[in-house]
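Q: Start with the shorter request: fold the first protein.
A: Done. Sequence, then structure:
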Amino acid sequence: MRQALVVDDSRTIRTILGKKLRQLGFKVSEAENGKIALDVLHASPPIALALVDWNMPVMNGLEFVVSVRADSTFDNMTIVMVTTETETSQMLKALDAGANDYIMKPFTDEIIVERLMLLGIQELTV
């Protein structure tokens, strides 16, 4: 079973994204900030997908992306920023740091599925 990680300081967002990913066949882990997410990555089987918020305490999403991309162990992991940051400069900063895609909140289930399909993470049989 494919592994996914949802990193967001909002329990509600973690629940919404986790539920959708489980429906899509993922085993889901959750973390409330980037620091905890790094701990989860190092303690888990290989994680195929991480959905990451930008604004979190302790370690934000951009710092998490930079840390993950600095470790070749996680080269095959797809990282999608899911955030309220709507400035183009922020989006470019995340993509330059190594995020594979960028989804702005609020989002719908359809947007999540569509983006995962475009990234080759999800099959068309959704």
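Q: Next, the second protein, separately.
A: Sequence, then structure:
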Amino acid sequence: MFDVSFSELLVIAVVALLVVGPEKLPKVARTAGAIVGRLQRYVAQVKEEVNREARFAELQQLQQEIHQSAQDIKLAVEHESDALEASIRTPSRPSKPKAATSETTKSKVPTSKTPKAKSAAGPKTRSKKPVS
């Protein structure tokens, strides 16, 4: 804390002996030691409190970063899910016409039970080509 050499301590001790006197010097030394000890403990508590507050601030910042990352991931997943649902509902390539099922074939193809309708032009005739 302070840079005090042995010669400086010796000077302080001699001055204290002259000012306080030899009878009260032990009591003053104990009191000064107790005050210095309390001061050191107080400084240590303040340092610990500052360190605790710094760690707490770092943890809060980390918590906010994690929360923000979680929100970003959630939004990305929702966006991808919406895009996937949209692609399933509306295919990107044109769809092929559906193959005729038996139900649609029945309604379009006349069966032997239903009479054929004749056209107004009459029966179709084919021209025969000469076979050579």
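Q: Describe the second briefly.
A: The radius of gyration is 51 Å. The chain has a mean pLDDT of 80.
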